Amino acid sequence: MKMTAAQALVKCLQDQGVDVVFGYPGGNIIPVYDALCTSSEIKHILVRHEQGAVHAADGYARVTGKVGVCIATSGPGATNLVTGIANAYMDSIPLVVITGQVPTTMVGTDAFQEVDITGITIPITKHNYLVRDANKIPLIVKRAFHIASTGRPGPVLIDLPKNVLQQEINFSNPTDLKLLGYKPTCKGHKSQIAAACDLIMKAKQPLIYAGGGIITANGSDVLCTLAEKISAPVACTLMGLGGFPGCHDLSLGMLGLHGTRYANNAVMECDVLIALGVRFDDRVAVDFSSFAPKAKIIHVDIDPAEIGKNVKVDIPIVGDVKQVMEAMLARLDEKNEDEWLAQTKAWKSQYPLKYEPSTGLKPQFIVETIREITDGEAVIVTDVGQHQMWAAQYYRSKKPRTFISSGGLGTMGYGLPAAVGAQVGAPDRDVILITGDGSFQMCMQEFGTAVEQGLPVKVVILNNGSLGMVRQLQEFYCDRRYMAVNFSKNPDFVKFAGVYDSLGLRVTEPGQFRGALEQALKGEGPVIIDCVIDPDENVYPMVLAGQPLSQPVDI
Amino acid sequence: MRHILAVLVENNPGVLTRVAGLFSRRGYNIDSLTVGRTENQNISRMTIVVEGDDLVLEQVTKQLHKLIDVIKINDITSEQYVDRELVLVKVGADAAVRGEIMQIVDIFRARIVDIGQRTLIIECTGDEGKINAVIESLKSFGIKELVRTGKIAMLRGQKFTSLNETREDD
After folding, report:
1. How do beta strands A168-170 and A206-210 pair?
2. Could you say which of B75, B102, B135 is where a domain stops?
3. Domain co-membership, B12 together with B69
4. List of chain B residues whose C-beta atoms are within 8 Å of the C-beta of residue A309
């Protein structure tokens, strides 16, 4: 079948089951848009900035479990994707990123809108391709999707020079996918699994430390069965939230720097730590040398490079965390460590998450109210900062793929476009963005995308008129020398919604919030609820640098 | 400790950048890196000499494996292997000292590959120790220019670093 390479690309995307792409056109990528013109299967969502496209594809991928696809042109279009690609890479999100490139004859000449995007993105992609031979497009696209979605997922970039896209090729389906250097290990090593099970059966104080891998592997149900079978409490990472029901008796919520005291105490006291799909990030461990000091550690992850990287482990198991858990379940007997469970329960009642009750509008109260109204069933998207931690602490997501947050890279501005993508991926669900006034302003142009596409994203801005998390850091580490953390001029976010002919609501009193959210959720369009919160509120508990998890600052 | 890694990679454009970039951004120290094609034109082979303790080496190996273009990695340090470097040295060589230099060249089984009016180019292959020794011996004549390749290495006997030997469960 004869067609242009651009048409071949679109056909390949269709063959991969892609039904939506997020993008922004430009000179060198025009052939792809020309080909998309005639595709009835692929919907293109026009964003307002390429960063929005990549974050939206990311949010879409997280909610659906499918590969997110975004498109941008060469040069600035491509560089605008960089933050979003890095974000997806850090959180292991499967993306296929398509960029235009100047014609091959001009590559390397500093041509107009030329940038070496494959060079730039080597450290932040799982793999990337600069396509010089149009005939290879079907093979490369197939490989890109395969690489992006298998093993430890991640973004794959395909850079397409304009003349390559315009070339006519004879399309044939690639049959040989074989990649000599890429064979992810999915099945865990039998004897390692046996050793892990022996250790678990002997454990008196077992703790499960569950991360994003649980969600990636679609292993939430198996995790639940495992935790219940061995009655081990479960502490989730930020990326793991929703991977284990936040309302479950065995749930200890989030661990780490802003983790619950009961989760962190459990880490310090457990005798066997079962680490599932996690990477012992510094925001979890805080101080590597004092992390889980009494525990033998079992570490299951699909990426061998994560095992033993930050913390020495006793039983490493490389494999798909769901498959490994299933293999473990087959070997494990039911067990019950009543004393340990009583202890974790006691910590829960002794050190609950708390905040000063006040007449003012507290951010924690807002998140709690969202949780109550939505019964923990909404898709919660966050930005990065204090509001993110409050959302993580208080929302207690019930299900996987419903807590969407930038974990590894900590990208302010991620939230709104990710919420757009999430809503595209889950059109029938309530998608609520919990953001801050700082983060929101980093990508607020994407509100236009939401309005244009009729995506009913509900934006809750926890507005403290400042960069709260940085201010909190300056309070603790800089002796309250506040520098560059206050916005003396913020836009009126209610009016901002108004200029897009959308509903904006302002909440200043606790009593107003419930009504506002209910009104927002009833409406069919996107809504902004600007919540003017107590500007001095901090995120607690907080483990200071170099301190063990058991000694946080708390109110 | 210094480790010698024999690495098979897909012969794709940019593969050297991927490997070299990985070392620099993760802060691993490369002593030397050589690369060239193998008997299979789609496969290149790198010999990387890297400094680090076992923990660092474990990470280097694992991170290298994550590169899609990297097919196989063999840390041959503790095995029986042959390793070679090639050096070209241009030394100052007035007529008066040429005889002495030629004697040194003989001793090291090196070769003179160019004679200029006041210089000689000497070619020498050998393991690192020999190369260092020959350079040391030539120093007193004044080394005008020096280029060395870095190490290439191969396992002795019936052990291989080749595609066919790549275990399926690797």
Report:
1. unpaired
2. B75
3. yes
4. 59
Q: Give how many domains chain B has, as a whole number.
A: 2
**B66 and B128 both lie in a single domain:** no
**Residue B20 placed within a domain:** yes
B46-91 confidence digits (pLDDT tens) = 999 999 999 999 999 999 999 999 999 999 999 999 999 999 999 9
Last-in-domain residue among B75, B94, B128 = B75
pLDDT surpasses 60 at B165 = no
State whether residue A182 sits within 8 Å of chain B by CB. yes
Question: Does residue B168 belong to any structural domain of this protein?
Answer: no
pLDDT at A46: 98
Separation between Cα atoms, residue B30 and residue B32, nearest integer Å: 5
Question: Does residue B107 share a domain with residue B54?
Answer: no
Residue A204: both structure tokens together: 């008196």
Looking only at the bridges linking them, the beta strands covering A527-532 and A458-463 are: parallel
The dihedrals phi and psi of B154, each to the nearest 5 degrees, come to -150, 140
Residue of chain A minimizing CA distance to B69: A181
B133: in domain: yes
Range of the domain at B145: 84-150
Residue of A50, A114, A368, A537 marked active site: A50
Residues A324 and A318: their CA atoms lie apart, in Å, by 9
Shared domain for B12 and B64, answered yes or no, is yes
Q: For the residues of A24-60, what is the DSSP string, one character each?
A: ---GGGHHHHHHHHT-SS-EEEE-SSHHHHHHHHHHH
A483: annotated active-site residue = no
Question: Within this chain, do residues B88 and B54 fall inside the same structural domain, yes or no?
Answer: no
Residues in A touching B166 (Cβ below 8 Å): 180
pLDDT at B161: 87
> Looking at beta carbons, which residues of chain B come within 8 Å of A147?
68
Task: Tell me whether residue A345 is one of the annotated catalytic residues.
Answer: no
**B34 and B55 belong to one structural domain:** yes
Domain annotation covers residue B165 = no
ipTM here: 0.91
Residue B169 pLDDT greater than 80, yes or no = no
Instruction: List, as ranges, residues 65-94 from B with C-beta within 8 Å of A.
Output: 65-72
Angle CA A329–A335–A340, to nearest 5: 120
Confidence band for B45, pLDDT divided at 50, 70 and 90: very high
pLDDT number for residue B170: 39
Residues of chain A under the 70 pLDDT cut:
none
Query: A309 at the B interface (CB within 8 A)?
Result: yes
Restricting to B residues 8-27, those with a Cβ less than 8 Å away from any Cβ of A are: 9-10, 13-14, 17-18, 21, 25
Helix (H, G, I), strand (E, B) or coil at A434: strand
Distances (CA, A) of A141 to A60, A181, A518: 19, 17, 44
Task: Tell whether B100 and B71 lie within a shared domain.
Answer: no
The CATH number covering residue B88 comes to 3.30.70.1150
Of A122, A308, A309, the CB nearest to B21: A122
Across the interface, of A118, A123, A305, the residue whose CB is closest to B14 is A118
In A178-320, alpha helices (H): 190-202, 212-216, 220-230, 261-269, 282-285
The secondary element (H helix, E strand) that includes residue A256 is none
Tell me, yes or no, whether B68 and B91 share the same domain. Answer: no
The CATH number given to whatever domain includes residue B52 is 3.30.70.260
Alpha-carbon separation of residue A478 from A537, A548, B108 (angstroms): 17, 21, 64
